[in-house]
Design goal:
Length: about 270
């Protein structure tokens, strides 16, 4: 039995995992924005104690930031103000007495997506579309983390006077006065403004995916995160934009694009870090 944890800006998901099956999952609110470090650690250990069993052999944790993977140190976690430099692995191993691994949340998503696919691809790119834009890369059976766990930070690449994350995440919706779910409901009702908005979102995402293609040449791209639930509204414009931005049509003909909006994919990947 393994324990996987996905720490997000608004929710922390914890799950007991056997193989690739989640046998139990708890979802709890994330840390209060004004919580000091000690309060966040106490909160996290309490949530772990509520789900862990004696059969759990290891703990894996995904966090939205760069991580010293070998030492399990978290640096400047997004949406967790007090997490500037946190030796999370050391703290939790001392508390629970079992191995703990820590990695970036998008890397965990890519690892979980690869496990769910069960297919062999030389390179899989897992793109998360949520509060931010994340990218994890699987090369064969291994995560490509880079020297500082930052190999997939394409959301921070400058784009349109800002960065890709500003146009390919929840930020894009909020800056235009929408919430993703509300925009999706409006599009379902045929609202022309919402449909046009999703068309624009897909165009930007296609541009981002062309960067992913140039940088990593994946055989499969998996889209995850909450916005992936709205895939049907931006699929066409995304594919058109990708074809316009990436000139190697014979490569795109072979490219597989999968959608995994399920909340437990990154949690599964986190559990497989050890």
């Amino acid at each position: 039995m393994l324990l996987g944890i996905d720490i997000g800006g608004t929710t922390i998901s914890l799950g007991l995992v056997e193989g690739t099956r989640i046998v139990k999952m708890n979802r709890v609110p994330s840390f209060p924005k004004d919580a000091v470090l000690e309060e966040t650690i106490d909160y996290l250990t309490q949530r772990i104690e509520e789900i862990i069993t004696p059969e759990v052999k290891s703990i894996g944790i995904g966090v939205p930031t760069l991580v010293d993977v070998k030492r399990g140190i978290v640096y400047n976690a997004m949406n967790i103000a007090s997490w500037k430099e946190v030796p999370l692995k050391e703290i939790l191993e001392w508390h629970f007495g079992i191995p703990v691994s820590v990695n970036n949340d998008a890397n965990c998503f890519a690892l979980g997506a690869a496990a769910r696919l069960g297919e062999k691809h030389d390179v899989i790119a897992g793109v998360t579309l949520g509060t931010g834009t994340g990218l994890g890369i699987m090369v064969g059976s291994q995560l490509l983390c880079g020297a500082n766990c930052g190999a997939g930070e394409v959301g921070s690449i400058p784009y349109n006077g800002k960065d890709y994350e500003s146009f390919c995440s929840k930020k894009f919706f909020e800056s235009n006065g929408w919430m993703p779910k509300d925009a999706s409901n409006a599009a379902e009702s045929g609202d022309k403004e919402a449909l046009s908005f999703f068309e624009e979102f897909g165009r930007h995402l296609g541009e981002l995916l062309s960067v992913v293609m140039y940088a990593y040449d994946p055989g499969c791209i998996v889209l995850g995160g909450g916005i992936a639930n709205t895939y049907k509204h931006f699929k066409e414009s995304m594919n058109k934009s990708l074809r316009n931005s990436y000139p190697y049509s014979h490569v795109l003909e072979k490219l597989q694009i999968q959608v995994m909006p399920q909340e437990d994919v990154a949690l599964l990947g986190a559990s497989l870090l050890n």
